[in-house]
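Internal ticket - ligand job 401, adenosine-5-diphosphoribose:
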Amino acid sequence: MASVIRTQVGIVGAGPAGLLLSHLLHLEGIESVVIESHTRRHVEERIRAGVLEQGTVDLLNETGVGERMRREGLVHHGIELRFNRQGHRIDMYELTGGRAITVYGQHEVVKDLIRARLHAGGQVCFEVDRVSVHGFDGTSPRIRFTKDGEPREIACDFIGGCDGFHGICRPSIPDGALRFFEKVYPFGWLGILAEAPPASEELIYSNHERGFALLSMRSQALSRLYLQCTPEEDLAQWPDDRIWRELQTRFETASGFRLHEGAIVQKGVTAMRSFVAEPMQHGRLFLAGDAAHIVPPTGAKGLNLAAADVRVLSRALAHYYRTGSGELLDRYSTTCLRRVWRAQHFSWWMTSMLHRFEGGDGFDHRRQLAELDNVTSSRAASAHLAENYVGLPFDPPGETS
Ligand code: APR
Ligand code: PHB
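stdout (structure tokens):
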């Protein structure tokens, strides 16, 4: 017999979506239990993206988990678009009436959230196995799993499916109930973390004829750099000196820009896709974050969309427990999808404008240069980019969640 844990919301996945959902529910007086297949150390050290929109920063600050982010995060007022060996700054702060982004690693957000949950007596159960979800078509959902080989069960009112793109929640929804929209790109990103001071204070997105490259950072001493590669690129073909040579070429400018080089402490390849599952809910199972949608990283939206989803979900659950009305829960997917598709379009657009597409007669490259010229010279076009990059307000006018 499995030992049964009773809670209000059972959450699968301790990534940013699951942890932030649990944190927001706690602030609403709602109990939850989070289960995670990896170790705490693994999720706290997993290097992912690192750009927080203003709305995500505000949410973390308002809910009491922003202290370290305020101290260590790097606030950026602009980004640079580089093409034809020349840089062009987009002044996001000025173009959006004072909104900015904060560069702070996703794993740092995860560390802060785990600490806050455990400090408040929250239950986060790591290293679970054989997870399955049941009964979410009715009113008594169950999550079954094993911990140290022993069967366990969570009996709850609702399930938060926050288990990422490869999780089990989305595939547990009956066939035919969801519709999937997907676009797979013919390239990936080779990302490195290097012990070298970033050569620019702001992010640089570079369109180069050899392929896209991105300069980002984690601190004044740690650079995070990416270069476009094939989706199945073999890292063994990329010794450190080849990576630096390629990066230096893709960032070169007419005025002699050079990256600072240093020891590469982490390397990885990420494939690129756009994906949406609709609706993001089925009965009492609610999908949030990467479990419901994936964006290519060029728009830096993945973590921010996860935060926006769970904010909507926590409010809808709070409304349900306060009033007994499932009205906001019923609208969860519709509310989230508007923002999700906006971010999908923006991420696809940035990806299409900045990457090299194989084949053709160079038409696409000429078209990209014309677009970049427009985006960096027309105020209206720059403002469009800036507004989307810093992120639309979490509560757009005329929308209630
Ligand atoms: N049982 C328990 N946990 C699971 C299971 C499972 N069957 N399957 C996956 N998980 C865990 C993963 O180990 C991971 O820790 O779910 C978590 C999902 O976290 P993320 O993949 O980080 O997804 P999410 O929380 O939605 O975060 C949004 O934003 O920057 C992007 O893609 C990036 O991860 C990021 C995302
Ligand atoms: C990162 O710092 O990892 C990063 C920054 C911007 C992106 C994607 C990733 O668009």
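Auto-summary: The chain has two domains: 3-50+105-178+279-357, 182-272. The first strand starts at residue 3 and ends at 6.
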